[in-house]
Specification:
single chain; mainly alpha; TRAP transporter small permease
């Protein structure tokens, strides 16, 4: 069980985004083959690919949060010592969490409107709430990942040492952050 949770923590978003990319590629490959070789276009392929793309896009927000990939001014943050960087990141994560908590009720309303309407997609007949659940799931994952980042930054502030596991990752890539 511990290995499964560890894998989910480490690889959930990456796995789902890779599966999404593979599915989109296969579906569109089938569409191209059908259209140009068989002379018959599929009615469902573009719609399903679009919905998979929506899910992959929202999952990428959680992935970027987990990896601390965001728009920020790196030169400004790099001027601080290790603990200063951690404090800056902690404040940044707090604003991010507030923003996503602000967005969650809107995502719930968006999802509930789809559930109440009973709308289904035109070609695939998929209930639209499957597609419209993507923002809410993403925002919940992002909130979880931000709380994980909080824990890491609080450890750095408390101990003054770098993130756990960061040195091993830097040794693998050959990159080392200079304080």
């Amino acid at each position: 069980m511990k290995q499964v949770l560890s894998w989910l923590n480490d690889s959930l978003e990456e796995f789902l985004m890779v599966i999404s990319l593979i599915l989109m590629t296969v579906i569109m490959g089938i569409q191209v083959f059908s259209r140009y070789v068989l002379g018959a276009s599929l009615s469902w392929s573009e719609e399903l690919t679009r919905y998979i793309f929506v899910w992959a896009g929202f999952l990428s927000v959680s992935y970027c949060t987990k990896k601390c990939i965001s728009i920020k001014i790196e030169q400004f943050v790099a001027m601080f010592p290790r603990r200063g960087k951690a404090v800056f990141k902690l404040v940044n994560h707090t604003f991010e969490l507030i923003f996503f908590f602000y967005l969650m009720p809107f995502a719930v309303k968006y999802l509930m409107s789809a559930v109440e309407s009973g709308q289904v997609s035109p070609a695939c007949r998929i209930p639209m709430y499957y597609v419209q659940a993507a923002p809410l799931v993403s925002f919940l994952l992002v909130a979880l990942r931000i709380m994980q980042r909080w824990y890491i930054e609080l450890q750095v502030i408390r101990t003054g040492q770098e993130e756990p596991g960061k040195r091993a990752a830097e040794e693998k890539t050959g990159k080392r952050e200079v304080d």
